[in-house]
Design a protein that fits this description.
By secondary structure, the chain is α+β, with helices and mostly antiparallel strands. The chain contains five helices and twelve strands. The chain has a domain at about 1-35 and about 85-130 and about 140-165. A twelve-stranded antiparallel β-sheet has the order 1-2-3-4-5-6-7-8-9-10-11-12.
Length: about 300
Amino acid sequence: MKSFPNICLNFIPSFLRKFSIVHLFPNQRPMSPAHPLLLFIWMVLLGFPHMLGADPGGKVPEVTMEKLSDTDWQGLQKELADGFDWRLKVLGFGLVQQPLNSPLNPENIWEIPRYQVELDLRPDLNLKFRSLELSVKPRLRCTWQQWQDGIRKGDSDGDADLFVNEWWARFMLKEDLFVSYGRENLQWGPSYLTSPSNPFNRDNGKENPKIEVPGLDYARMVWMPAQNLSASFIANIDPGEKLFYRPFHRSYAFKLDYTGHEKYFSLIPSYSESDDFRLGFFGGLSATDALLLYGEGQLNDRGEIQILIGGS
């Protein structure tokens, strides 16, 4: 077995030799001719007349192309540089545990390691250019573990994994209308350990902040008719980086949000292609200057209801 330092030192050259798009999207399945990207293109075309400043069904203004001068190129480069932002998170942690020789794990048959070390590099790259915003979040995870008990006593193992946890493109059709497509960790609601109102992913990652929640593939349209109101159409079309224990089914939801003075409330009706209907909801209220009440839950078509209520 290679040691952890050798794994990390040898990773970069081997990666450059073997790099392909499959390494960035290892869970991506071959898509049918009806690619989900068509949904994103359709949403863009739906708002295209508004984007050009013409009435729907009206005459589209003629667009002329002019050669950019050196000054224009310099301005464009400055605009791109001003709109680019990045940050890097470096997270390292270790775990020491001693498995018990018990009837549930005799001679450590579950191969629980005594020592575990992990180092994560998490860069976030973002570009805002006029009506377009792009984001990508590649990840490098290096792990090492060693066994001192059971059938693997004395063994050690290390690994390095490079993947993209999130990537998306967002376009502003109008000042109050946005469309986006990509892989995101889409979260909402006030609950701490789980998010019952989220029909796509109940895991909000708050129980273990060291571990990132895997991103799923979404197509979204967001409309904000007023400062305190918004409506979203969300289509979850691929599991992305998340591993499901059951077969994945595409699902769709409308999300209606209201944010007022010292209160907020949201409704999320959703439908899954597994013929599952749900109504999610969450809200919060500042009862007094010292008391905040909040709740979150969901109701399905079988009459089952889940509600979490809390305060602080």
